[in-house]
Predict the 3D structure of the following.
Amino acid sequence: MKIQHNLGGIEGLAPINYEKQVFVEPWEERIFGIHTAMMALSNHLNTSTPPYPIEQVPTAFKSFWTWGHLRMGAEAMNPFEYFRLRYYEKWLGGISGFFVEEGYITQEELDTRTAEFLEDSAKAGAPLPSGGNPAIDTQVERYLREGDSPKRSYTGTPKFSVGDTVRVKNTFPVDHTRLPGQLRNTIATVVQVYEGAFTYFFPTEDGIGTPMPVYSLAWKPEDIWASALVEPNSLYYNDIFEVYLEAA
């Protein structure tokens, strides 16, 4: 299990940062905007819910990019780097690496440009280039309003019902997972079966990616952690894809 997926099972990481500002540095707003634009221009949106006429948008960005890709980039990091870097620094690294992998920029070009900004801070604060395209702006603004829903129609029958006792499978993640590590091989109770089915942005090696039911589960915290670490008479909840569950 990658450490990044098992934070609920690790003690003494570091002091908790109670920073209340969404963006601490101005560049963090910029990287959030870049990520949002990448999602809004992703080439999969012509088959998403709702569908977008993405093929008609005059953008040079022709790749597949979602929240899942952003998370996968963070999960691929060395754990020591993962815990050392700030939240949006992880975003910056993942997005930069993606642009290099997709061929939009070379690593040499990126390193050279970075060195220029580090040597001359005035360049980093210079005004952004003018230009833009109203059609791209319209697409990004529509995506911000309507999004990209994971909910899908479903004609099957959920395997479990409210009140059922289930076991979380001991699934081994490879590149990406949506299963918190501390929940593997634990016992929980189904408290809600969400209506319909939900997919994921892309298939993962541990089973998500096709439409399936999702359940809200409740655990006794002492079934996950040591009794000394939990609040008495409390419950822990998490939403889990069906593929991660089996009957107990």
